[in-house]
Structures are given as structure tokens and as C-alpha cells.
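Please describe the entry underneath.
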Amino acid sequence: MTMLFNDSVSLAPARDFAVTEAKTRRLLIVGIGLQLALALPSLLALFIDERVLNDISVWVKPLKFQASLPLMLVTLLLLLPLIELRMRAGRGVWLASLVAVITASGEILYITLQAARGRASHFNDSTPFEATAYSVMGAGAALLVLSSLVIGLYILRRPSPDAPAGLRLGAGWGLVLGSVATLITAFALGSGEIGGPGHWVGGARTDLGGLPLVGWSRTGGDLRVPHFFATHIMQALPLLGLAFDRVAPRFARSGIAFGAVLSIAVVIATFVQAVQGQPFL
């Protein structure tokens, strides 16, 4: 771990840093572009394809992921400047970004393919291909989250000297805590041990009539709720830190600490609520 945060690129001439860093940024931009490129045909298909899965359009799930995965990559792209220049131009940050792009792209390609086939991408082991693909997708999702964890650790351990304290702490802890919470909730969700295979716990096992936009169950518990709040800690804490830098920089450190505790409390509370079979709203 120590070697990871003492990248040998630090010995390179300073003029090479910007060039190397640009490669990492271009990598993330390509990944974001691929995700968005798939979203347009999925959106069109939503209105012309009448097939359903769990009683809603087969294209709803791909569109959700085509919104959330680019947001995750955009988050990493925007937070990279908070890392010391020599470190963000190094192999560690580049590798973490590469893993994020490959795993996010692989996940969305499979989800979109399954939608085109009218088949479930998650909790589907009906055929050897689908069972293998689901396992690979699960491993890829874990690597995607771990890549965010690595970027968060870089921000905390090798910050840029001109990074504002609130944004630096919010970004670093947001990525670290969000990644850990996401992994835990994703395991609970993907294991199928709570309420049986699927995200429902009690209530009607259908996605029809769910909450607007998110689609969470209104008749029982839904494990997607804590997973959602866990994942978006990665955006919430950086935004909180940015707000403190602008309004009350003296309280940035304590404000981020409070925000982190509150964020984890929300994840725990919504997880308990879902396990008990209670709808979020």
C-alpha cells in the first residue's frame, strides 16, 4: 500500500506530469462518452419497445445504470485535481481510472444487451452464460467501487497543496466511506439472502407502481434504497465540503465529520427499514 502512494513517476521531469495526467483524464472522458452514447438508443427504445420485465419496460434498468455509472466516472474526473500533481500523473491513479472505465463499460454493455434480449441482467442464472455473466458482473462492480476507494485514499494521503480543506476532506472521505458502504449494501442486495432473490423484502414482487424516478417499492422493503444512499455519499460529501469552503471554511472539518456520520446513519436506517419489509415512503 505504501508503494502505491509513492509512485515512481514522481522522479519524472515536471513537464511530463501534465501529459501523463491528460491521459488519465482522456481515459475517463472516453468511458463517460461510451455510457452516454448507449443512453440515447435505450431512451428511444423505451418509447417503442413494449416488452416488460418485472412489469415495467425492459429499458428502465439500462437507463438507470446509464445515468448512475457516468455520474460515478464524472465524480472521479472532477475530483482528480485534488490529488497532488505527481501522484495523479502516476500509474496508481491511471490504473484505478482504467479499472473504473473497463468495469463500468462492461457492466452497462451487459445490462443493455440483456435488455435488448428481453432478459434480466441481475439475479439471472437461468443459463450457463447468464450465470457466468452475472458472476463476472458482480466482480466487476466490486472492482469499480474499489477503484473509487483508491482515488479517495489518494486524495486523503497525497492531496494537492492548493486543495480547499472542505472539498478535500469531503471528496476523500466521501469516496472512501461511500465505497465501503456501497460494497456492504451491494453484497446484501446481490446475495439474495434477504427476502429471496431480488431487491424486494416483503410486499409485491413487482416494480410496477414504484416511487417516481427511482422505482422503489411502495408495498414492502427495497434493498435498493440503502444501496442508493451508500453510493451517493461519493457525491454528497464533496458537495458538502464545497459548501463549507464557500460559506464557513472554519467549520469544514467538523462539518464533514458530521456529514459523514449522518450519511452512514441514513444508510443504516434505510437498510434496517428495508430488512423489516417497510417501504421507504
Summary: The beta strands are 52-53, 56-57, 200-201, 221-222. The first strand starts at residue 52 and ends at 53. Confidence is low (pLDDT under 50) at residues 8-12. Residues 164-281 form one domain.
